[in-house]
């Protein structure tokens, strides 16, 4: 197979069309189409389905795209290796986090040392985060869990307690603590399946042989906060994620100690990517300063 064919395929998959790929490569669209067609014919495989002006990757195309993403990233890393001593970091660092609050200091420190890097932070649950990391759709993940997997590097960011989240005035005046065993008396508001906060609450209920069922299930932390703020029931949140909201109160539990371990995770195969290495250094400096 030819490098030019793989490059044409990769850019069609990356940009979602032959015309956009041609513009990105600064070559003609017929040339891109011809390169992809030759690759398909040579290996007797269909990589895209073509409908009107839309193209979609087949299963074989998606599998090849994962490999070409690795291939062209290695090419970028080789170039970065030669450039590292004479150029500052630049590019796009994509962070997926269950909460950005755990890495705000590290982001600030990283941006101070690498002002040419554009940083995006998106939130998601652990399942979505790991999927994006493994599909090369993000460089950094921050999860509410201790992750152990052969393809991942992990840094322990610490542990924060899980608290009951209620609207102000929802509980009797003066309530400062809540018994976990009393939760069954209230309507409970859970995050979606896949949320680590939900999983921790369910695990603790199972350990105590306590039957807890959600009255309302809400996708996403912000949605859950809004439902709780309406006075519909009790939700759950880690202390680090509570933030500032005058409508809400975070109440600790008096009879259990539920915590949310936080970890920063990256793909082991990408540990030498300059952007990833630079951000990991910023996290390590932040942790060291907090411990001092």
Automatic annotation (TrEMBL):
A Pfam family reported for this protein in Swiss-Prot or TrEMBL: HTH_1
Where does the HTH lysR-type domain lie? 1-58
User: Which parts of the chain are coiled coil?
Assistant: none
Q: What is this protein called?
A: LysR family transcriptional regulator
Presence of the UniProt keyword Transcription in the record: yes
**Family of the protein in this entry:** Belongs to the LysR transcriptional regulatory family.
Q: Tell me where on the tree of life, at the top rank, the source sits.
A: Bacteria
The alphabetical list of record keywords is: DNA-binding, Transcription, Transcription regulation
Classification of source organism: Bacteria, Pseudomonadati, Pseudomonadota, Alphaproteobacteria, Rhodobacterales
Does the keyword field hold Metal-binding? no
